[in-house]
């Protein structure tokens, strides 16, 4: 702190110091793999506080991207019981008050609790608003004391960026630094966060969203708190990769590496987290049956970081089948997005696979947007494999989540409600492909159809720190 003051006093140019919080694998991809962190480090002195990046990982990231980013050695303790209880109550009241579909679906097994909460809200919406304001203020106050403020006393920052602003640990950090009048910026990392993760229990100066849909959601949900944050729509940083001409691997090299004949068509199945859909291996088995009935097709199965690799091991040695795993283990599934740092080539390999496939199969995930950004047709799985599950635990429920509903209305993908329907969609897509501008159709969700998101975020950060 003293050194920075002395340099400013002498008239030397000093980079502003920014603390970057990374507690989620998705956020790591959006910040690091997109090249955004590199661009930020060229302009500012960046220190990272992370639950998944240690000294070894930081050294490798700095080497790979040719930058000098520091690592803050401060422990972020897990959420305590008091905060967990208060946040659950807050989330229940918040979701009922705003009639959020996602939460209603998630608590279908607790109908009595939900009905009671809904009755209370209808009884007095004004009381509900008061309760939400009170709870948020209480949680902010408690979370401020959840961390040891002395851990930050030796550091001076001009601002703090929260890349997972629905995470209470990041909220706690922002709240501690707010006591020292350090400004904050929140980057909402995914399209589902505002309607599935509860409330941001921290007051930010700037809030960045992917698109105008999310911006409207934020305004609707947070107006009751009477904040003065500035809202910015920036697009999706990692999607810049899809619109850059450079490719990590040519189509010929991609096919040669996987031993896929030049004339073969490619089905790409991107799985989702196991906790959302336990029977994705049944879908993989159905796709294998399809390619066995139709020679000249290869299947690539890319396992989600929080999926179970052991479910796909039986398919590893089959002809024309390629199973891709991430570098994590089953034992880490429950805490995957808090501890697992994606491989440096994670984003480039996804881009290459999407660019080379003829159709993408997905399960209610952001891949719906990724594939459309690469102008690829999408088939969305809406059946439970060999099972016929009740709606509260069926994959069907995932498409009724709040963030999925506006995308459903666009009709850019084909829904497969059965194995037979999946096969019919595959026949139509592979045998009679129709030209379609999926990128233009999905623009309301990705905001840009060119590589402008990183630059837009940089402009917002510059304005925020001015």
TrEMBL record:
Cellular component terms (Gene Ontology): membrane
InterPro entries on file: Glycerophosphate_synth, TagF_C
SUPFAM superfamilies listed in its UniProt record: UDP-Glycosyltransferase/glycogen phosphorylase (SSF53756)
GO MF terms held by the record: CDP-glycerol glycerophosphotransferase activity
Top-level taxon of the source organism: Bacteria
Name used for this protein in its record: UDP-N-acetylglucosamine 2-epimerase domain-containing protein
Species the sequence originates in: Dyadobacter luticola
Taxon lineage: Bacteria, Pseudomonadati, Bacteroidota, Cytophagia, Cytophagales
């Amino acid at each position: 702190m003293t050194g920075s003051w002395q340099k400013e006093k002498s008239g030397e140019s000093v980079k502003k110091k920014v603390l970057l919080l990374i507690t989620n694998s998705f956020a790591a991809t959006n910040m690091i793999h997109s090249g955004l962190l590199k661009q930020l480090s060229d302009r500012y002195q960046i220190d990272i506080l992370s639950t998944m990046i240690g000294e070894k990982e930081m050294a490798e990231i700095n080497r790979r991207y040719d930058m000098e980013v520091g690592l803050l050695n401060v422990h972020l303790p897990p959420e305590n019981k008091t905060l967990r209880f208060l946040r659950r109550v807050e989330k229940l009241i918040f979701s009922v008050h705003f009639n959020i579909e996602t939460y209603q679906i998630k608590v279908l097994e607790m109908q009595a609790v939900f009905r009671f909460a809904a009755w209370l809200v209808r009884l007095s919406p004004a009381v509900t608003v008061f309760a939400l304001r009170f709870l948020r203020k209480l949680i902010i106050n408690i979370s401020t004391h959840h961390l040891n403020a002395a851990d930050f006393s030796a550091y001076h920052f001009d601002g703090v960026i929260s890349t997972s602003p629905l995470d209470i640990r990041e909220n706690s950090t922002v709240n501690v630094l707010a006591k020292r009048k350090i400004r904050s910026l929140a980057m909402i990392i995914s399209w589902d966060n505002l309607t599935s993760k509860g409330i941001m229990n921290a007051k930010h100066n700037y809030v960045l969203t992917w698109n105008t849909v999310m911006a409207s959601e934020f305004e609707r949900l947070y107006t009751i708190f009477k904040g003065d944050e500035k809202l910015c729509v920036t697009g999706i940083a990692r999607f810049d990769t899809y619109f850059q001409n450079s490719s990590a691997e040519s189509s010929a090299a991609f096919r040669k590496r996987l031993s896929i004949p030049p004339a073969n068509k490619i089905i790409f199945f991107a799985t989702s987290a196991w906790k959302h859909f336990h029977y994705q291996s049944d879908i993989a088995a159905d796709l294998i049956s399809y390619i066995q009935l139709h020679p000249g097709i290869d299947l690539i199965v890319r396992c989600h970081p929080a999926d179970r690799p052991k479910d796909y091991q039986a398919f590893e040695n089959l002809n024309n089948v390629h199973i891709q795993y991430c570098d994590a283990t089953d034992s880490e599934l429950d805490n995957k997005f808090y501890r697992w740092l994606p491989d440096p080539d994670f984003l480039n390999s996804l881009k290459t696979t999407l660019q080379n496939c003829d159709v993408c199969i997905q399960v209610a995930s952001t891949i719906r947007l990724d594939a459309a950004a690469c102008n690829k047709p999408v088939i969305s799985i809406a059946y439970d494999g060999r099972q016929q599950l009740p709606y509260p635990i069926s994959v069907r429920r995932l498409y009724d989540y709040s963030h999925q509903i506006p995308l459903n209305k666009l009709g850019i993908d084909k829904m497969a409600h059965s194995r037979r329907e999946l096969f019919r969609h595959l026949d139509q897509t592979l045998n009679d492909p129709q030209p379609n501008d999926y990128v233009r159709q999905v623009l309301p969700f990705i905001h840009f159809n060119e590589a402008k998101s990183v630059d837009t975020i940089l402009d917002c950060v510059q304005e925020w720190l001015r």
